[in-house]
């Protein structure tokens, strides 16, 4: 097999390309394990806190204003829906940031 100079880039351009990739990798580090665990914690707490607050307020209302329907169950569900919306907001925001970063890398 003969070495075709048109198909192989020269040594200096290979070194330059590798150096550029290394510098880009240092600037845009990939999220690690701690980032993932932190995001799971953020999402978990963003669901749990409104759910528990809704249940606590509902329980208090049931004690002080008893009625035909359960305030605890209603506000627990409302808090859960609010928490899920909150988690969706955080995940979509992080996804958008990751997509923007990926587009920057491709350019």
TrEMBL record:
> Which stretches does UniProt call biased (Basic and acidic residues)?
1-10
Q: Keywords assigned by UniProt?
A: Membrane, Transmembrane, Transmembrane helix
Any matching Pfam family? ATPase_gene1
Chain residue ranges for the region called Disordered: 1-23
Asked whether the keyword Membrane is assigned, the reply is: yes
Give the superkingdom in one word.
Answer: Bacteria
Give TM regions.
32-57, 69-91
Coiled-coil stretches are none
Q: What is this protein called?
A: F0F1 ATP synthase subunit
């Amino acid at each position: 097999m003969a070495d075709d100079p048109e198909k192989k880039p020269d040594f200096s351009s290979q070194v330059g390309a590798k150096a550029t990739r290394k510098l880009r990798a240092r600037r845009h580090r990939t999220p690690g394990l701690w980032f993932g665990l932190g995001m799971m914690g953020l999402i978990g707490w963003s669901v749990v806190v409104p759910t528990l607050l809704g249940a606590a307020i509902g329980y208090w209302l049931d004690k002080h204003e008893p009625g035909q329907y359960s305030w605890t169950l209603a506000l627990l569900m409302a808090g859960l829906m609010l928490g899920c919306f909150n988690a969706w907001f955080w995940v979509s925001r992080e996804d958008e940031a990751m997509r923007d970063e990926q587009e920057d890398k491709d350019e």
